[in-house]
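My main concern about presentation is that the manuscript never shows what a single data entry looks like. The format is easy to grasp once an entry is in front of the reader. For illustration, here is how one protein appears when written out as sequence plus structure tokens:
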Amino acid sequence: MSSLLSYFRNTLQAFTSSSSSLQVLRTIPNSSTNPRPKTIYVLDSSFNPPTAAHLRLATSALDSTDSNSSSKRLLLLLAIQNADKAPKPASFEHRLVMMALFAEDLLRSLPAKSAKDGSIAVDIAITKHPYFIDKSKAITASGIYQPDPSISGEAPIEQVHLIGFDTFIRLLNSKYYPPSHTLTPLQEMFEHHRLRVTYRGDDESGDREEQDSYLMDLKDGKREHEGGKREWANSILMVEGKKAGERVISSTKVRKAAQDRDADSLKELCTEGVANYVLEEKLYTKQDAT
């Protein structure tokens, strides 16, 4: 792992001083035969560290039938807009190693056919953009994901952003879009891409009916005074999250388990590769771990 850690550290330094705003650092499996995707599932997170909740978000999407493509690509995206400051509690290079381990664990967890025929691959990428809509634009502008030029009239690559309900609320909060403070900046994204929003299963976001009403308000035109369009609701899919009785998983809980050196809890809260790496590298063991 030391060579991979060194690779990510050097690549981060080069990226920070470059003019690029987004870069794919690694593709798993690393194969020239990976099929050209028609759908990119984007999982944007701090990955501090990757957890079993991230795994649930990703596998739910990749196993779904709502895509028009048999070949899918998962993009794990890490924003490093504060790369000039020491990130806490885990450095960006450690997070990237964990993202790579997470990707390998994820592919092993998928049905054997998908893993064997290479129809699903995972890209690990970094971006300098802190805001959601800018990240989406950067993915498109990067030119990394393009339709097959040999097929005339092929549709552009579609992005499906995998987000939790709390992120969904922030995305549709006009205060984040100065100077007009309207939702108009989201128009371009909803014209071309989709959201896959996972229900929250805790008390903070209300019950299922309350969460559904948030989307229905958009669909019923109750956000039009802010620039929100009714038709955007057609590009938003609400999906099952934590089931009743399942353990609540969060990065904070993982970091607390690491701080306590609780290997059993770590292996419940993370994938196996990530849990082992956290233990081996003694990550999140300092007092600022939470």
Notes: The mean pLDDT is 88.
